[in-house]
Amino acid sequence: MFLEPAFIHKLWGGDKLKNEFGYNIINDDKVGECWGVSAHPHGKSVVKNGILKGMDLGTLWDKHPEIFGYPKEDRFPLLVKLIDAKQDLSIQVHPDDEYAKANEEGSLGKCECWYVLQCDKNATIYLGHNASTKEQMQEMIKNCEWDKFLKEVPIKEGDFIQIEPGTLHSIKKGTVLLEIQQNSDITYRVYDFDRKINGKARKLHIKQCMDVLNVPSKDPEDFIIHAADLPDNQVNCLYSCRYYTIYKIEVRDRMTLATDAPYLIMSVITGFGKINGYDVKQGDHMIIPNGVNELELEGNFDVITTRI
Ligand code: ZN
Q: What CA–CA distance (Å, rounded) separates 206 from 142?
């Protein structure tokens, strides 16, 4: 089941999703995000083929639970997006389920992970911070000691990064990545580089940041996996947590994939080929419905596959 993404305009967005991933984006040269698999009210993806063509993923989840193996969750649990950062994103943190439920009208929290598709040579991200106590953190934020406070770590193409709720993070300009996250759109900004849009700064959320930030932060190196070049025609598990399990598959010529997942989410990140006879190419996002337990993959492409 192929999905048509929703495209999200962002102050920091660029034109790579249109020009390099071939998405049909009209009249917007600052598209920051492509929500390829989303049932979130802020941008829903829509079924592109078959008898359910035209139905959005949220409705599909409610009306056709059989496609997902009769799930217990009250909403589609994940959101898969591509991010094109032409400018730096704000320094931010996301809440966990408990905090979001209590403070954000029943929203889910946001655990997320990234697979880096493109970045500059010597690129970095911000991940974690250097404060060892809450008081120290408060001081550093109040005094805008960002160089001292923020932890900067190198990344390269093919890196996978897990970002637990409560972890300070930010993507820097020039980076394109695939993000898999809980179905949530709650972001708390601690710093936005004093940027202004039409003379106005975006809102910061210092109180919420103080509430949810982990202190001290965990070692960022423990959450980065180098996954640029993995064994071909094999299901390579990148990470597994309570919200998702992420695999990277590098298809070269042909392979068979057996699955016992209730359903699978697939995003083709490079190349093209066929899955069970359907043409697939870079930028395609799809759901493999319940009951399809064997997949024939042919061609030359890399696909990030997610299961709950
Ligand atoms: Zn984030």
A: 9
List, for residues 211-231, the tens digit of each pLDDT value: 999 999 999 999 999 999 999
Distance from the alpha carbon of residue 232 to the mean position of ligand 1, in angstroms: 30
- Give catalytic residues, as residue numbers: 189
- Say which residue the tokens 């409610």 belong to: 62
List of domains in the chain: 3-226 (2.60.120.10), 235-307 (2.60.120.10)
Q: Which residues have C-beta within 8 Å of that of residue 257, sequence separation ≥ 6? A: 235, 249, 294, 295, 297
Task: Report angle CA 246, 307, 61 to the nearest 5 degrees.
Answer: 140
Give the model's confidence band at 197: pLDDT under 50 very low, under 70 low, under 90 confident, else very high.
confident
Looking at this protein, which amino acid is placed at residue 243? Y
Contact 23, 45 (CB under 8 A): no
Cα 27 → chain centroid: 24
Ligand 1 centroid to residue 284 C-alpha, Å: 22
Residue with tokens 């990030």: 304
Dist. CA 85 → ligand 1 center (Å):
12
CA of 171 to the centre of ligand 1 (A): 8
Chain mean position to CA 193? 23
The overall longest dimension of the chain from CA atoms, in Å, is 59
